[in-house]
């Protein structure tokens, strides 16, 4: 097992690191405080190719591998998880789903603009009563021959207010259960499609999270992704890859918090010496570093499995579970190492701790990951 990075991957990693430090870090606290969407930074990320990293070049993408995408996610997330989740959703859930399962007409119509950041997309699965239980879709898409009529509500949608293209999962035939679900492409501005107020969140406050309401929205049949009844499988396959992106985000949050704590411990003095010289702090740093390295190996393994064309359901779930738990633990310890300063916004670690929490929840809670993992190992 060799996780040595190629020269190209190292260059991509460095480009993401430079962008995070030079463009995301300035103003990140203010954006968090004001819940301001990083519009200018998203435009720049599109120009750098970060919004369509795995999209084939013939659709204006970067044509890179999953590991390169993970490297970018990690570096961006060290500084600004609100920006990195935009990258994750656009890459993993929207672009990948469209390129893998969409028709050629759908790819030509949407992928070029999505991959270059001219527009961004949103993935719409969660509902008030269908979060972890994705089979319980209350949003309906009634077949009317040449079109569907869409009715329902979607909750907690990242990029909900700023996206132009929405992949909506809805129930067409309730009697068929999960085999009666479809995935539809809905464009902003379609009559009957309304966007609710922006959610006031604990963390990733710069990202754009909204509820979406659909009232008798007409969606052309050509906007369905895959065959009739393919929607649930589409959602699960897409989320499996999305978990790798969120695992990388969690890894980045943990690594960013650790780096700040390590730096702080070398300059903050207590009892006549830098606090890193006290065993209580040194052991915390040792545990943090070890867990981050373990999480990194799991994340990289999942990315390599995906790139190799192997089944990555298990490795992705393990990576997401462990990286998310590590992010929460490491960020909390980073606040502790900073002491009172850790509770103050200007030192960044309190924001990283708030951002870490969502990685245990979205794109499959930690509990759901354990279900995926246990079913896999018991099946084997």
Structural account:
With 380 residues, the protein is α+β, with helices and mostly antiparallel strands. The protein is built from eleven helices and ten strands. The chain has helices at 7-24, 28-34, 39-48, 66-79, 81-101, 104-116, 231-265, 279-307, 313-338, 349-358, 366-379, and strands at residues 121-124, 140-143, 147-158, 165-171, 181-187, 193-198, 209-220, 224-225, 269-270, 273-274. A four-stranded mixed beta sheet has the order 1-4-5-8. A four-stranded antiparallel beta sheet has the order 2-3-7-6, with helices on one face. A hairpin with a 2-residue loop joins strand 9 (269-270) and strand 10. Helix 1 (7-24) runs parallel beside helix 4 and helix 9 runs antiparallel to helix 10. The radius of gyration is 21 Å and the shape is globular. The relative contact order is 0.12. The mean pLDDT is 97.
Number of strands: 10
Shape: globular
Main sheet record: 4 strands, mixed
Number of helices: 11
**What is the share of helical residues?**
40-55%
Low-confidence stretches: none
SS-based class: alpha+beta
Spatial extent as radius of gyration: 21 Å
What are the secondary-structure elements, in order, as H or E?
HHHHHHEEEEEEEEHEEHHHH
Mean pLDDT: 97
Strand order of the largest sheet: 1-4-5-8
Layout of SSEs?
Blueprint: H1 7-24, H2 28-34, H3 39-48, H4 66-79, H5 81-101, H6 104-116, E1 121-124, E2 140-143, E3 147-158, E4 165-171, E5 181-187, E6 193-198, E7 209-220, E8 224-225, H7 231-265, E9 269-270, E10 273-274, H8 279-307, H9 313-338, H10 349-358, H11 366-379
Parallel strand pairs: 1-4
Antiparallel strand pairs: 2-3, 3-7, 4-5, 5-8, 6-7, 9-10
Helix pairs in contact: 1-4, 4-5, 4-7, 5-6, 5-7, 7-8, 7-9, 7-10, 8-9, 9-10, 9-11
């Amino acid at each position: 097992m060799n996780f040595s990075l190629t020269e190209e991957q190292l260059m991509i990693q460095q480009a993401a690191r430079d962008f995070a430090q030079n463009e995301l870090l300035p103003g990140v606290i203010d954006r968090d405080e004001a819940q301001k969407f990083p519009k200018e930074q998203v435009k720049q990320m599109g120009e750098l190719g970060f919004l369509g990293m795995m999209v084939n070049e013939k659709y204006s993408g970067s044509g890179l591998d999953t590991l390169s995408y993970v490297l970018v996610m990690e570096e961006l997330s060290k500084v600004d998880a609100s920006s990195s989740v935009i990258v994750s959703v656009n890459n993993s859930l929207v672009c990948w789903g469209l390129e893998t399962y969409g028709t050629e007409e759908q790819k030509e119509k949407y992928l070029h603009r999505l991959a270059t950041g001219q527009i961004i997309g949103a993935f719409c699965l969660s509902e008030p009563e269908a979060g972890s239980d994705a089979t319980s879709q209350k949003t309906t898409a009634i077949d009317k021959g040449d079109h569907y009529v869409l009715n329902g509500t979607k909750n907690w949608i990242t990029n909900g207010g700023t996206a132009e293209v929405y992949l909506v999962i809805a129930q067409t035939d309730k009697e068929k259960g999960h085999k009666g679900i479809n995935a539809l492409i809905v464009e902003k501005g379609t009559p009957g499609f309304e966007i609710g107020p922006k959610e006031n969140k604990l963390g990733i406050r710069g990202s754009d999270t909204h509820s979406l309401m659909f009232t008798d929205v007409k969606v052309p049949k050509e906007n369905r992704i895959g065959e009739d009844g393919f929607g649930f499988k589409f959602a699960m396959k897409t989320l499996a890859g999305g978990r790798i992106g969120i695992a990388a985000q969690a890894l980045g949050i943990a690594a960013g918090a650790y780096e700040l704590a390590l730096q702080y411990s070398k300059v903050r003095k207590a009892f006549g010496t830098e606090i890193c010289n006290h065993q209580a702090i040194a052991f915390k740093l040792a545990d943090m570093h070890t867990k981050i390295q373990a999480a990194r190996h799991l994340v990289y393994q999942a990315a390599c499995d995906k790139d190799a064309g192997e089944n990555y359901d298990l490795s992705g779930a393990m990576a997401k579970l462990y990286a998310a738990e590590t992010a929460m633990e490491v960020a909390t310890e980073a606040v502790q190492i900073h002491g009172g300063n850790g509770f103050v916004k200007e030192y960044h670690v309190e924001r990283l701790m708030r951002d870490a929490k969502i990685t245990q929840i979205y794109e499959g809670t930690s509990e759901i990951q354990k279900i995926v993992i246990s079913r896999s190992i018991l099946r084997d």
